[in-house]
Amino acid sequence: MKFLVRVMPKADVLDPQGEAVGKALRKLAFSSLTSVRVGKSIEIDIQEPDARLAEAKVKTMADKLLCNANVETYSIQAL
Amino acid sequence: MKIGVLVFPGSNCDYDCYHLAAQVLGAEASFIWHEESHINADLVIVPGGFSYGDYLRCGAIARFTPVMEALRNFSDLGKPVIGICNGFQILVESGLLSGTLLRNTGLRFLCKDVYLRVDSNATPFTSHLALGSILRMPIAHNEGNYFVSRDEYSRLNSNHQIVLRYCDASGASRAESNPNGSYEHIAGVCNARGNVLGMMPHPERASEVLLGNQDGLRLFTGLLKQTVLA
After folding, report:
1. Continuous segment of H or E residues that includes residue A22
2. Closest residue of A to B145, CA-based?
3. In the predicted model, is pLDDT for residue B228 greater than 70?
């Protein structure tokens, strides 16, 4: 099974990368832009026939390694 | 005194730290590879570099190595540990220290000398230094922007765990003297017990006359004296 784990900086954490990208987009005349946040996407392929168990394993991966709960949040999407 | 220097794939300040330990401090120094599960040392240095290529997050992957499990046991015994730069990042990722090191607010890799003020002598690295002492040493990092929640900051501050703050030459912490956007100008913190210190600046690069600066040495001299006397 394939999953997409999306890791994003928390709303109250400064995201200088997102700000820089936002500034660049404004320079490209996208004036209606209100905010840009930059996170990361991680594709996980796992050999586990039980979908619920597979997702639980991916959640453990996210909690242990993929996401730093101090400053990031994550979501998991089955592909 | 035995000083162990941890080595991860991608560590690049390990030899500098070894040199500091063996040649400058005159200690019995050794490298400790990340796959080792035993630490034979009185003090451990977690050196800077780019462990595991800084993939995912700085220090995130190094945290799960056998030597980090051994380091946890080592620090539980109250023995001194100092994490420098990427070493600091590894210590926060492993939960041995509070907080997170984010990308510098200016989005640039910074390599320059900064001034630091000693704001706590609750660690063996600063116990012999007067509060307010000013040290100059270099930083060299892209992710040195220390972040911590307001509540956690209050806890750290009241427990004397904020050890070093960025400041100017006169000792004042101002926005202009904060190189990377660190919360409350934090450059170094310790754990609740005080035996584990993490800092972004590089004392090992400022510990010899030849390097034009010996301020970094001051973090180690007190500790060395204590050990010798003990």
Report:
1. helix A16-27
2. A14
3. no
Distance CA B222, CA B204 (A): 15
Q: Are B97 and B91 in contact (CB under 8 A)?
A: yes
Q: Can you state the percent helix, strand and coil of chain B, rounding each to 5?
A: 30, 25, 40
Give the C-alpha separation, B142 to A55, whole Å. Answer: 34
**Is the Cβ–Cβ distance between A43 and A62 less than 8 Å?**
no
Q: Give the separation between CA B213 and CA B223, rounded to whole angstroms.
A: 19
Average pLDDT, chain B: 95
Contact B213, B135 (CB under 8 A): no
CA-based nearest distance A49→chain B, Å: 27
Q: Amino acid letter at A61?
A: M
Domains and CATH numbers, chain A: 2-78 (3.30.1280.10)
Over residues B182-196, the mean pLDDT reads 98
Q: Quick check: A17 contacting B, CB < 8 Å? A: yes
Task: Compute how many other C-beta atoms are within 10 angstroms of the C-beta atom of residue A8.
Answer: 19
A68:B57 CB<8 A: yes
Domains defined along chain B, listed by start: 2-229 (3.40.50.880)
